[in-house]
Amino acid sequence: MTRRWKGRARGTLGTRGAAAGPDPEGLALGNPGFPSNRAGACPKQPNPRLLPPPEMPLQVSDYTWQQTKTSVFISVPLRGVSVRDADVFCTENYLKVNFPPFLFEVFLCAPIDDENSKAKIGNDTIIFTLYKKEVAMWETLSLSGVDKEMMQRIREKSILQAQERAKEATEAKAAARREDQKYALNVMMQIEEEERKKIEDMKENERMKATKELEAWKECQRKAEEQKRIHREEKFCEQEKQIEDERKKLKHKSHTRISASRNLATKATKVFKRRNSENIFLEKLKENSIPAPRSVGSIKINFTPRVFPTALRESQVAEEEEWLHKQAEARRALNTDIPELSDLKEEEKNPEWLKDKGNKLFATENYLAAINAYNLAIRLNNKIPLLYLNRAACHLKLKNLHKAIEDSSKALELLTPPVADNANGRMKAHIRRGTAFCQLELYVEGLQDYEAALKIDPSNEIVQNDAEKIRNIIQGTELKS
User: Fold this and answer.
1) Is the full-model pTM beyond 0.70?
2) Which of 112, 162, 179, 282 is the 20 to 30 Å CA partner of 249?
């Protein structure tokens, strides 16, 4: 069962200018556990001729409130004031809404859980949902019998509590951000170490494979030489066998013609010597017939001259040849300085080829491999803005937000001067850098990049919607618990 009251706030502002104007005493410093609706800029001041002096803000009296044993609900009308001009401040014993020239403040009779309490602004009304720390029904909403000094003490104590909590929240957020950066750095180092080890393993496997192939080739050569030697020995043995057969024939006829046999033996000996000398000569001749290695030389190639369809006075043959010569010299100089290019093919040393390769890897969501392709292309040519722009997109996918900001900024430096041809690239660079800023919760910097993108293409509805969302986050119109 709930109880509902209508009435005037019991407390009154006892010090001069305590909540009038832009809050000179700092009562709206903000609470990390309670939503704030501060617009980020000085609120619009009403016409001073129609309002009382700033020392006497108008107290809101037509608020309503109701309660349960665990919650309190307060409804405060804004009276036609803009949502951005409303400033909400709440602690466990103090609640204030400052929307000049009106002021609503309550010195609560019991403490509340301000970290989980909520405030919703809309339809010219602020509705508070306050959760009690102790389960009980309140007799009144605000403390009774509160004088000016006690009001001042409660305000100062609330401000100090809010400042302490804001400081603790800032330190915790900074510590968490440092831990995230440290973790990201460790992960990147681990990934780079794994990639390096993988490359070393691949090189070692290739070296072992080449060594095995060389050993196999040497073994084949040795076996071929062994076969040749065996063939020569077999041929020599056949020749000796033939000579031995001839000797046997001569000895068989020696009993009849001794003289003839002697002549035949002498002739056979000469034939044997002659055949041996011929065999030796043939072997030397075969060895000497192996051609020597060819000498190193260069072949000069003459290309057909290019024919330009334009007049000779408008031809740029000399400029194009000079540009091609400089590109070739630069590519050769870069290739000697980069050891990773020694194992690549000639077309793989082209930055444009590497850029297309990175785009294909990005399309398959292999962002780390795409970054490696863009890195090598940038080392070959660091004046191509699309390489930095595409690498920033990869870093965004991998949540490397600081690297995405650096690559987007570098792309914007190269996309100068701003002309119509590079408008699309400049727009993408602003959007990607703004996205990285927003993910780092730097919404003001992110909004600046989105507004710069809208200046390039004002009719882009997607960018307009994103920019409007960022403005709502900055202005606090979307309050969260």
Assistant:
1) no
2) 282
